[in-house]
Amino acid sequence: MHANDYSEFSLLPGNKLLIPLRCACPTRGQTAAGTKFLLTYSIGIGDTLYTLSKRFNVSIKSIREANSFSDGFQLIYPFTTVLIPLPSEPSSSHTVGRSDHVTTSSSLPAPVDRKSRRNRILSIAGIAAGALSLLILFVLVPIYLFHKKRNQVRQSRGGNERVYSPQELILELVRFDRAVKLFKFSEIKKATGNFRTKNRIKGCLYRGSFRREVLAVKKSNGSADSEEWLSRGGSEGEKSWNKRIQIALDVANGLLYLHSFTNPAYVHNDIRSSNILLNGNLRAKIANFSHAVKANFNCITRVVGSKGYMAPECLEAGPVTPKVDVFAFGVVLLELITDKYPVFLQDGRERLLSTTVAAIMQSQDAETELSHFIAPGLGENRGIEYAVQVVKLSLSCFRQDPADRPDMAEVVSTLLKVQFNIHKTLLSKQKN
C-alpha cells in the first residue's frame, strides 16, 4: 500500500490502485538456453515446484535457476511469486488463474489487498516461523502424576527397586483416575535426581521416586490459559497488543503448516488455550496432537474437542476438515484479547465467550461495549481499532457453514496487517 494514497482498511469500490509487479528479463545464459520470456507467477495453496514444472512444461532445474534457488530447494509459499522461464509467449492457460487460487472477499473478515514488498516479507517470515516451530516442536505439558499399581513397586530381598519399563508407565498414566497430588518443585527435582539422564524414560518424561510411590514426571513451562501469562511486567497498550498478536500469529502459522504444508494434510482437532505452550519470550507452540487426524478423514462418531471450542459440525458424523481448527482458533483469538475463558460466568450464569462477543458487536454502541469487555489497558490509544479488527476476524471463524470460514492463510494475512499497524504505531511513538 506504500504505492497508493489509501489505507489498507479504507478501500472503496471505484478506487484505483497501483500494484507493484515483479518482472525480469532473461539473462544471456537463459537466452542461450532457449528462454525468451520470464513469467511472474503468483503461488497458490497446493502449488509445488513439481506441479509448476508440469503446468508450464519446463524443468524444475530451470525454475530454480531463474529464481536463484539452491539445488534441492523444494519449499515455496502461497501468496508469493516465482519467475517461470518460457521458450515461447505464455498462452491463456498459463495466465488465467485457477479457481482455487483466488481469495474471494466473501470469506474474508476485512478487505485483503495485494501485499506490499514489506508485507510480503513479513508474510514469508511468519509462515517460515510457523513451519520451523512445528519442526522443532518441543512439547512441554503439565506434570502427569499417576498412582502405582498395587504391590507393583516392592523392594526385593536385595533392597533394589523394580525398574519400570516405559510401556508400563504409559499404561499407568492411562489408568490414572484419582485426584492429582501437588508437589513442590524441590520435591520433583529430588525425586527425579534433578532430571538426571538415567531417570529419563523418553523425551521429556522422567521417572520420579516419591516416598513409596513411583510416578512419571513430564516437564512443563505452562500453557496459554493462565490469566497471568501476559500480565508479568505490566506491559500495556501497543506492547501488550504486539505480544498477543505475535502469539496468535505463532499458532496461526503452526496450523497453516499443518493444513497446507504437510503431506498428507492434518487437522489438529483439539485447538484450545491449554494446548498452546509459551516459552520465556512468550512465543507459542502447538501441543497435544492426540486427536489429530488426516484432513477430510471420515469419522463415524465425532464429538471431539473441548467445550467452548467445538465447531457445530463436531456434533455430527462426517469428514473432519481444517475448518474445525479455524473455528477453535477464533475462540483462542478472543481469549487473547479479553483474558476470559471460552466458557465464563456472568451474572451467575455460564456464557460462551464467542456468542457474548457476537452479541456485543451487534449492539448499537459496539465499540464502547467492546472497550469495557476486552482486557484492561488494551483499549487505550488505537487499541479499540485493533480489537475490532481481531474480533471481526474471530467472528468470521465462527460462521455456521465451514466453507464460509477463512482458511489459515487468510487468517495469517489479516493478523500480519494488524501486527504491521501496531509496529507502525510503536515506531511513531519512539520517534516522538
Automatic annotation (TrEMBL):
Gene Ontology process terms (BP)? response to other organism
What InterPro entries does UniProt report for this protein, alphabetically? Kinase-like_dom_sf, LysM, LysM3_LYK4_5, LysM_dom_sf, Plant_RLK_LysM, Prot_kinase_dom, Tyr_kinase_AS
Domain named LysM is located at: 39-84
Q: Which residues form the Protein kinase domain?
A: 121-426
Location within or outside the cell:
Cell membrane
A GO term for molecular function: ATP binding
Membrane spanning segments where?
121-146
**Where is composition skewed (Polar residues) in this entry?**
90-108
Name the coiled-coil region(s): none
Task: List the residue ranges of the region (Disordered).
Answer: 90-111
Name the GO cellular-component terms: plasma membrane
- How does this protein sit in the membrane? Single-pass membrane protein
Gene3D superfamilies found in the cross-reference section:
LysM domain (3.10.350.10), Transferase(Phosphotransferase) domain 1 (1.10.510.10)
The alphabetized UniProt keywords are: ATP-binding, Cell membrane, Disulfide bond, Membrane, Nucleotide-binding, Signal, Transmembrane, Transmembrane helix
Q: Name one Pfam family in it.
A: LysM3_LYK4_5
**Where is this protein chiefly located?**
membrane
Which protein is depicted?
A: Protein LYK5
Origin species: Sesamum radiatum (Black benniseed)
